[in-house]
Design goal:
This protein is α/β, with parallel strands linked by helices and 330 residues long. The protein is built from ten helices and 14 strands.
């Protein structure tokens, strides 16, 4: 039985709590053990409502608890590096919500410390762990699309009133919060080694990215055309295009439906690929951690450290094109 703790008691922590309850109800070896917040009353209220055994009013106190096996870091990404280092220094395995850190340099520091202390650390970018990823790879590898040349994906939400997204000191902006999903989709399907990246951006008065489009150019002529923003909505669909057909998915953030259109069906009667039902979708990343812990591994193969670093390097490069730097990077 793996005793899981949550560091931070915000909205994303509620989603993980629901996930863990569902996994436990299905007989999976997880224990909803502890939650920590900077305010003890808040942690106690969370523990009582979400079914956790112990509540702590400080992160350090929870991490000193020898019974904690795995910590899910659910704080804003501006604080991820600090909080992961704290977990690692206490010998706790870490599943950290995306974006893993604010920049690649912070991630390098976290991974170096984790390697030194022999502690499992992985990024909770849930789309990397979902079965839809392999379904799409299988379609691409089958040859049904012919010569694959183009991918597109967008993710927009009207969330520009969320304080952490509009404040530079909290690593605000659309890219690290929502743009990371189209970017990861492109990296999963086409690879994380584009030969050229072009982009356009609209910045806020505070100097963070409000909405953007960016294109990854790959060797061999493939392109991934991506966009993201925090001031509007979109259909969130993904498209992978080839010479003989194309694939459409319903949601880059959490794919629930995959449709394949080909010449054979006249592009009118798509083949639909079922995506397994889920508790919340977070269960796949938790299961990956359980497997890694059982095997004594320091990273999850679904999201290796090198891939987390590469995605952060691409986001760093985009911000450099836009002239966006966070205050703590000066």
């Amino acid at each position: 039985m793996t005793r899981i703790a949550i560091l931070g008691a915000g909205k994303i922590a509620l989603a993980m709590a629901k996930t863990l309850r569902g996994m436990k109800a299905q007989g999976e070896p997880v224990c909803l053990y502890a939650v920590a917040a900077r305010d003890l009353a808040r942690a106690q209220a969370f523990a009582q409502s979400e079914g956790f055994e112990v509540a702590y009013g400080s992160y350090e106190e929870m991490l000193r608890d020898d019974r904690v096996d795995l910590v899910y870091v659910a704080t804003p990404h501006s604080h991820h590096a600090e909080h992961m280092k704290l977990c690692i220094e206490h010998g706790k395995a870490v599943l950290c919500e995306k974006s893993f850190t604010a920049n690649a340099q912070q991630a390098h520091e976290v991974f170096a410390l984790a390697k030194e202390r022999r502690v499992l650390v992985t990024e909770a970018i849930w789309t990397r762990y979902m079965p839809s990823r392999q379904i799409l790879r299988d379609i691409m590898d089958s040859g049904a699309l012919g010569d694959i040349k183009m991918l597109s994906a967008s993710l927009f939400y009207p969330i520009d009133d969320v304080p952490r997204l509009i404040r530079p000191e909290l690593a605000g902006g659309a890219l690290l919060d929502v743009g990371v999903y189209p970017l990861n989709f492109a990296c999963m399907m086409f690879g994380s080694d584009p030969v050229r990246v072009e982009s356009s951006v609209q910045l806020t008065d505070a100097g963070v990215d409000y909405q953007e489009s960016f294109t990854l150019h790959y060797a061999g002529g493939r392109m991934a055309v991506l966009s993201a923003g925090m001031g509007s909505r979109c259909d969130r669909r993904c498209l992978i295009s080839g010479s003989r057909g194309y694939v459409v998915t319903d949601n880059v953030n959490n794919i629930q439906r995959i449709e394949l259109f080909t010449q054979e069906d006249g592009f009118t009667s798509p083949r639909v690929f079922p995506v397994p039902p889920q508790i919340t979708g977070y269960e796949y990343e938790v299961r990956a951690c359980l497997r890694a812990l059982e095997r004594g591994e320091l990273e999850c193969p679904e999201m290796p450290h090198a891939e987390t670093l590469r995605v952060l390097e691409l986001m760093d490069a985009l911000r450099a094109q836009w002239g966006v730097r966070y205050p703590f990077e000066q």
